[in-house]
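Task: sequence design from structure.
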């Protein structure tokens, strides 16, 4: 019997056994840090320099300085204040001198006790803090200080020149307390197991992992920080790319039924019906998809493209090819409005080819059924029966498709629209409905920068549509500064009336609904104390519709559309708008994706600063879908110099969605953008910045693919296996969940 229990790896030790239960509890609850390894990977956000030693005679204002000086005198004053009404308030004023000048230090409240005891006249110390002015005299309020005993010059230089790490902290645990805890566990960094293959590390002159951890937490120079960052970025990029490469590799081993369209089938008949020719981009991407469908392993492809680049057309042709080959295709949409919209447009595009088994249906026709959660029992039963018998070649639906009761005759292709709203679990549940894993095509309507695609969707091959179909009109976008120039807003409503007078239609988009359930605090906008427009709740659909009907758009046919309406009501509103019976549709972002009304030429987005860049680009893609040019007006009350106005200016200046998604990513924190791919509270990207580090991500992807192809089990790399387990287990596969 083994009397000595096996010791845990030093980095796996729970923090409570090293730091004590109280600190460990706060770290676990507020920062998600539970082990020594977690804490070592909680990197400083930035570093403060205590500053070079400065003479008191030439202190700069508002800068962080470090001075060595002697205490000339120290006086404790008591005073009355709101917090201490009985004259119990305390203020310690200490005057210091270095021979060249004098400076006052002040400490307040409970902070006076320690310096009152320590800063006695004649004491020498180093003081660090920010220089401010009070009563026309320079002072340092609550400076950090270090008493100089023995007065060694070396101590002075070391202390003044050192870099102080500033950690991501919480109200319950300040940065300096985290720093102390890190120093306690730092010796364990020597035991860190290196995930990078030695050849890769040496070939790129990267420091070892223990050295990187020491340098990131306790740098002596800025070069130390640079070395550590370069190394730790590679770790994050490489471990993530290996996880994605292994998923691609595993998927490639699965069997699938090859789906090759028959020469004179449904696809040929459909192409013959098209009133236009496909763009070169659509033809190229279709070829990539058809090549994948013809193989004996399941396709895993991401189809991304500009707003309005014709992704749905490409997806529909892929579905028809599979039906031709004897299989069924399912399209999964994130909302009922979108599922109904897709169903309607697919049926319209196919005409009699969508009337399989019906009178008047074409010879090669199939049935296209809709399946959503709110359907009546009889319609639902009919749809389920059509799927089981194979009568329906194409089904379009929401999450309802994933339910256990839904059975397919022979599911050959799954098309997922708006990928980031679906997790891997849902995808797998749908894939499990095929006799063998079906092929998978994922469509995303938001153009994604290449690096984000590699980081978030790295388990999929990518096809990009960057051409707009012929006949699509340009969209002019303008910012309307409603607060600075109210007459611009009046002109915006005139423009809407002019478009309607020409026989066109318009959208007005608002950030919120405005019914009693609607909470202004939940709006999409980011609040900041200085933003004037944030003094009121965001504009709401119901209020704006009433105001427009009574005011600037009086006499026009106005309807509202929002997410809390009954599905049938939403559908009826969309049908009337699509049929041209409504002039102006006042809506929330429910119209953001997939809504296709070619006659709608104008869009006014109210409180546009409350939407993200990609969302604005997505929304404006709803106009200019026909032959008449589109107009998008971004209404804001933000001042001209504000970041919000700069963001709107960027949207107005370009129609390139890929460029805008880059701007979006640069302006927001990484986690927001990658947040669509995460379910956990912490991002596993602590050091890597997906736009800045494009090169590292691309190189890491190549290295990972090479490594996994040669050794899928990673047999020779125990350190890498450990790092992968940590990523996939601790982050609950959040990077691969995309949900």
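Answer:
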């Amino acid at each position: 019997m083994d009397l000595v229990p096996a010791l845990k790896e030093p980095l796996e030790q729970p923090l409570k056994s090293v730091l004590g239960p109280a600190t460990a509890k706060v770290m676990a609850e507020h920062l998600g840090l539970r082990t020594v390894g977690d804490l070592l990977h909680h990197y400083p956000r930035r570093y403060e320099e205590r500053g070079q030693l400065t003479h008191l005679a030439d202190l700069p204002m508002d800068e962080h300085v470090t001075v060595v000086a002697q205490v000339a005198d120290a006086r404790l004053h008591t005073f009355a204040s709101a917090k201490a009404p009985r004259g119990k308030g305390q203020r310690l004023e200490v005057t210091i001198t270095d021979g060249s000048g004098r400076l006052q230090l002040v400490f307040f409240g409970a902070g006076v006790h320690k310096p009152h005891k320590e800063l006695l006249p004649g004491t020498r110390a180093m003081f660090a803090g920010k220089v401010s002015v009070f009563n026309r005299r320079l002072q340092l309020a609550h400076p950090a200080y270090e008493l100089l005993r023995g007065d060694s010059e070396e101590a002075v230089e070391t202390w003044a020149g050192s870099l102080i790490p500033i950690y991501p902290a919480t109200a319950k645990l300040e940065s300096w307390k985290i720093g102390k805890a890190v120093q306690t566990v730092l010796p364990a960094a020597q035991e860190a197991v290196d995930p990078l293959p030695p050849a890769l590390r040496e070939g790129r002159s990267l420091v070892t992992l223990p050295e990187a951890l020491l340098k990131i937490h306790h740098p002596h120079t800025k070069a130390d920080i640079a070395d550590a960052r370069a190394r730790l970025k590679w770790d994050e990029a490489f471990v993530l790319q290996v996880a994605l490469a292994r998923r691609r590799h595993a998927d490639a081993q699965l069997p699938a039924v090859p789906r090759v369209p028959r020469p004179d089938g449904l696809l040929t008949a459909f192409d013959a019906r098209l009133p236009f020719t496909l763009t070169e981009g659509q033809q190229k991407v279709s070829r990539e998809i058809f090549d994948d469908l013809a193989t004996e392993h399941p396709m895993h492809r991401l189809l991304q493209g500009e707003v309005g680049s014709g992704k749905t057309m490409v997806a529909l042709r892929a579905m028809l090819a599979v039906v031709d080959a004897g299989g069924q295709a399912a399209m999964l949409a994130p909302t009922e409005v979108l599922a109904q919209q897709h169903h309607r447009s697919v049926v319209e595009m196919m005409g009699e080819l969508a009337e399989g088994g019906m009178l008047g249906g074409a010879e090669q026709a199939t049935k296209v059924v809709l399946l959503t959660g709110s359907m009546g029992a009889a319609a639902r039963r009919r749809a389920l029966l059509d799927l089981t018998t194979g009568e329906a070649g194409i089904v379009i639906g929401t999450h309802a498709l994933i339910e256990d009761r839904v059975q397919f005759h022979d599911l050959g292709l799954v098309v997922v629209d708006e990928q980031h709203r679906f997790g891997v679990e849902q995808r797998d549940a749908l894939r499990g409905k095929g006799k063998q894993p079906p092929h998978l095509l994922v469509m995303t309507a938001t153009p994604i920068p290449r690096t984000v695609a590699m980081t978030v969707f790295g388990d999929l091959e990518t096809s990009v549509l960057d051409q707009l179909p012929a006949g699509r009109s340009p969209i002019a976008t303008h910012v309307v500064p409603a607060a600075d120039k109210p007459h611009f807003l009046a002109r915006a409503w005139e423009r809407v009336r002019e478009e309607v007078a020409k026989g066109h239609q318009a959208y007005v988009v608002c950030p919120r609904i405005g019914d009693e359930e609607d909470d202004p605090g939940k709006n999409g906008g980011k609040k900041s104390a200085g933003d004037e427009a944030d003094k009121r709740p965001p504009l709401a659909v119901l209020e704006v519709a009433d105001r427009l009907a009574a005011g600037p758009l009086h006499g026009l046919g106005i309807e509202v559309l929002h997410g809390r309406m009954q599905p049938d009501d939403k559908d009826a509103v969309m049908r009337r708008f699509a049929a041209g019976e409504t002039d102006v549709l006042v809506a929330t972002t429910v119209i953001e994706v997939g809504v296709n009304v070619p006659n709608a030429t104008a869009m006014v987005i109210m409180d546009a600063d409350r939407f993200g860049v990609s969302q604005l680009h997505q929304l404006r893609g709803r106009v200019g879908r026909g032959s008449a040019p589109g107009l998008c007006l971004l209404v804001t009350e933000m001042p001209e110099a504000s970041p919000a106005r700069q963001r709107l200016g960027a949207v107005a200046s370009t129609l390139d969605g890929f460029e805008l998604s880059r701007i979006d990513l640069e302006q927001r924190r990484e986690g927001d953008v990658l947040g669509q791919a995460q379910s956990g509270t912490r991002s596993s990207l602590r050091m890597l910045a997906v736009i800045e580090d494009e090169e590292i991500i691309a190189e890491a992807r190549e290295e990972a693919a090479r490594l996994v192809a040669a050794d899928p089990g990673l047999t020779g790399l125990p350190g890498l296996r450990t790092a992968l387990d940590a990523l996939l287990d601790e982050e609950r596969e959040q990077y691969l969940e995309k949900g």
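The radius of gyration is 32 Å.
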